[in-house]
Amino acid sequence: MQSLVDLQKKIFPDLLEVMKQRYAILHTINLFQPIGRRSLSDRAKMTERTVRSEVEFLQKRQMIDVSGKGMRITEEGKGILSELAVFMKDITGLSGLETQLKDKLNVEQVIVVRGNSDNQDQVKLEMGKAVVNHLQSHVSTKQTIAVTGGTTMAAVAHVMSPFEKADDCLFVPARGGIGERVESQANTIVAEMAKRTNSDYRMLYVPDPLSELSYQTMLKEPSIQEITKLIRSTDVILHGIGDALTMANRRKSNDELIRQLEKEHAVSEAFGYYFNSSGDVVHKVRTIGIQLEDLMSVNQVVAIAGGSSKAKAITSYFNQGKADLFITDEAAAEAIIHG
């Protein structure tokens, strides 16, 4: 495939540019529909004149519908988008990044989307779409899906759609999280994901972190025991990876812990565990929910993290962490490979 792409780049460079342009417009409409022409121009980073011309082309071929509410992609358009996806990854070099990242991080499967989520919110939604596509083919009826908090996971929730081959699924928060911004809390995110997939959900109303006394007391509560059992027997887990000090500050950790993390050279954080550059655990937050050792018994572990600023944190985590699928963006992938 790559040799064919290289040949096409030499013989039909103009044709490939047109393909990339139309693919980008279809992809953006699919992500943000219904969308107006001006908004499409801004998000696709094309002039309104170019967008107007391409929209007319796509509408004539019934790949999009245009109404007073904006543009929507048709089933024909979705099919074209799906068939072109692999080819476009080869053209743009993303397939090569995915192969290099699999070897570098020792992960079974990697998906890389274009852009840098550090400064492009759209990229987080594209990573979310990749999560949704994966779940559509890997989730079965009555399965439980545990989800952590964070802005990336909130973006994933925003693009969730009903499962086509699974009913009666249950979303649960992977851990407590009261104390963070409400839109980034795992409870809020699982409720949104359940609503968008016509599934059910459970809440976990506990602060994060907990004192030892509170931890032991809450573990005796029947309602906490019930949700904890569901969380630790989950079939799928979706989680993010964060920069250690950024996450500690977001959780309003005290100065003593911040100094300890700095002293121990903490680089990354996931599930309340802090890791150094070698992947060793240097601190663990006392919290109710999924524990690092639980990942070994989960059928599907999906890690999602992007942005060049997270490259060191991602590398640190994967020095010991398990994931069946890692979804990231182009900027993070480049920084990890060449860092």
Key traits:
alpha/beta; seven-stranded parallel sheet; four-stranded antiparallel sheet; globular; 2 domains; Arc Repressor Mutant, subunit A
Summarize the SSE layout with pairings.
Layout lengths: L1 H10 L1 H20 L4 H8 L3 H13 L3 E4 L2 E4 L1 H18 L1 H12 L3 E5 L7 H18 L5 E4 L3 H8 L11 E4 L12 H12 L2 E2 L10 H7 L3 H11 L3 E5 L1 E2 H7 L4 H9 L2 E5 L2 E4 L4 E4 L15 E5 L6 H7 L7 E5 H9 L1
Helix pairs in contact: 2-4, 2-5, 3-4, 6-15, 7-8, 8-9, 12-13, 14-15
Helix content: 40-55%
CATH architecture of the largest domain: 3-Layer(aba) Sandwich
Given as residue ranges, the uncertain stretches (5+ residues, pLDDT < 50) are none
Largest sheet: 7 strands, parallel
The number of E-state strands comes to 13
InterPro entries: CggR_N, NagB/RpiA_transferase-like, SorC_transcr_regulators, Sugar-bd_dom_put, WH-like_DNA-bd_sf, WH_DNA-bd_sf
Family: Belongs to the SorC transcriptional regulatory family.
Keywords: DNA-binding, Transcription, Transcription regulation
GO molecular function: carbohydrate binding; DNA binding
